[in-house]
């Protein structure tokens, strides 16, 4: 038997062993993270809900979702245990970047491009004239009743 035939199988077994080992390491790290939970700790579930730990049991954890509202979750449903500062920041709604001078993103594009009335390219009823220029180079000359489909008018 030639060694060249066995080489792909040996490589495949080696890769499978490495993948299994890394999966076990991730499981061990997740278990250690979940073992850090204690009453008063802030957590994020795998569904993205933030809550405070009220009681830790063998396989479950009792979370306070909002004041006076408790829910029982499986420990496996906890995606992250948060430190106290991060949990308070998230619950209070403060931005993580509140202290820096990061740009503010507007809710709509009108503040970026300016209003149509600022450019002077509107006809009297507030519609924007579409075309290349005011010199008459292919300006939009459709009738006000034209809906733009197959030349029909409404």
Short overview:
This protein is of the alpha+beta class.
Quick tags:
19% strand; 154 residues; 5-stranded antiparallel β-sheet; SH3 type barrels; 4 helices; 5 strands; alpha+beta
Q: How is this structure best described in words?
A:
The protein is of the alpha+beta class. Among the domains are: 1-35; 37-95, Roll (SH3 type barrels), CATH 2.30.30. It has 4 helices and 5 strands, in the order αβββββααα. It is flat.
Largest sheet at a glance?
5 strands, antiparallel
Number of strands: 5
- CATH architectural group of the domain at 37-95: Roll
Tell me the overall shape.
Answer: flat
In helices, the fraction of residues equals 25-40%
- The CATH class label of the domain at 37-95 is Mainly Beta
Mean pLDDT: 76
The SSE order reads HEEEEEHHH
First-last Cα distance: 82 Å
| Model regions low in confidence, pLDDT < 50 over at least 5 residues | none
Strand order of the largest sheet: 4-3-2-1-5
Strand content: 15-25%
Predict the CATH topology of the domain at 37-95: SH3 type barrels
The Cα radius of gyration reads 31 Å
Number of helices: 4
């Amino acid at each position: 038997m030639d060694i060249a035939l066995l080489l792909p199988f040996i490589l495949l077994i080696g890769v499978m062993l490495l993948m299994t080992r890394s999966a076990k390491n991730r499981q061990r790290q997740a278990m250690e993270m979940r073992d850090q939970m204690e009453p008063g700790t802030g957590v994020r579930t795998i569904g993205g809900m933030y809550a405070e730990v009220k009681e830790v049991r063998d396989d479950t954890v009792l979370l306070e979702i909002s004041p006076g509202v408790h829910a029982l979750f499986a420990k496996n449903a906890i995606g992250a245990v948060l430190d106290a500062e991060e949990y308070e920041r998230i619950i209070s709604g403060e931005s993580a970047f509140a202290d820096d001078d990061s740009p503010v993103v507007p809710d709509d594009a009108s503040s970026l491009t300016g209003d149509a009335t600022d450019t002077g390219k509107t006809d009297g009823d507030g519609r924007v004239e579409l075309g290349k220029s005011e010199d008459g180079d292919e300006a939009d000359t459709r009738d006000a009743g034209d809906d733009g489909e197959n030349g029909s008018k409404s």
